[in-house]
Design a protein that fits this description.
Helix 4 (about 85-105) runs parallel beside helix 6. This protein has helices at about 10-20, 25-35, 40-60, 85-105, 115, 125-135, 155-160, 175-180, 195, 225-235, 240-244; strands at about 110, 145, 165, 205-210, 210-215. About 15% of the residues are buried. The longest helix has 21 residues, at about 40-60. The protein has 11 helices and 5 strands. It folds into 3 domains: about 10-60; about 70-160, no CATH class; about 165-244, no CATH class. The chain is mainly alpha-helical. The protein has a 3-stranded antiparallel beta sheet.
């Protein structure tokens, strides 16, 4: 949760978790042990740290209602996690991913702000489950869509499993380079830096089936005839045709 080293508390935490099966039980066990008079300084330090972490966790959970069932309806299902801290969001998403991986079929998981949940720099509860879903989910027609403004911050182990890319406007040169590096194409087949930096609203480069196209995405609120007219005026094209 706090992105700190656990080496000082890991042995004690494992011991407590082996005895307790719930978060409430864990907190009560820590409280009881802290009341013992014959604690070594190391044990007391570990228990105090665990107690502080649990207090922070409970503060974030608040009066939330929980369920042991993931009920998905046909169509789009949205989980609004905006009232939770990032670490609690991770745990909730992990629970949903585990259920989808083990018990669901024909499900697409959409993860916004991917750099927050599957960062390159550190481990998160979500990362392991997402990697399993990305690498194993297709057998049950379960797929992952991720959204990120900064590809450099997203774990590369998951990006390796991406087979369809929608690349939008980028204004920062280094991020443009990160974007282009994701495409398994030679330089002549790729868009140029200028292509990426001059994309307009609704324009994307789509890479799929070893081919890249420039396309226009129809906004939900816009009539199809109007969107088609805009797309035609923007001249969708194959990169290979454009470069030639």
């Amino acid at each position: 949760m706090l992105q700190e080293s656990m080496k000082d508390i890991r042995p004690k935490l494992i011991e407590l978790c082996n005895r307790e099966s719930t978060l409430d039980g864990l907190r009560e066990s820590v409280t009881r042990e802290l009341e013992h008079e014959k604690l070594s300084s190391g044990e007391k330090k570990s228990l105090l740290l665990i107690s502080a972490y649990l207090r922070e966790l409970y503060n974030q959970i608040g009066e939330c209602e929980f369920t042991e069932e993931l009920s998905l309806k046909k169509g789009v299902n949205t989980m609004d996690l905006s009232n939770f801290g990032g670490d609690i969001q991770n745990y909730i998403i992990t629970g949903a991913l585990r259920e989808i991986l083990n018990n669901q079929k024909d499900t697409i998981v959409v993860i916004p702000e991917a750099g927050k949940f599957i960062p390159q720099s550190r481990g998160t509860p979500t990362k392991t489950l997402l990697l399993q879903l990305a690498s194993q989910g297709a057998v049950n027609r379960n797929f992952v869509w991720i959204d990120a403004q900064n590809l450099a911050g997203v774990d590369k182990a998951i990006l390796k499993h991406v087979s369809v890319w929608l690349l939008g406007f980028q204004s920062e040169y280094n991020e443009v380079q990160h974007t282009l590096k994701q495409l398994p194409l030679n330089k002549k087949q790729k868009p140029s830096e200028e292509h990426i930096m001059n994309l307009e609203l609704g324009e994307f480069f789509v890479w799929s089936d070893k081919t890249i196209h420039k396309t226009y995405v129809l906004p939900k609120y816009m009539p199809e005839t109007e969107g088609r007219s805009i797309a035609m005026s923007k001249k969708a094209f194959l990169i290979s045709d454009y470069n030639s």
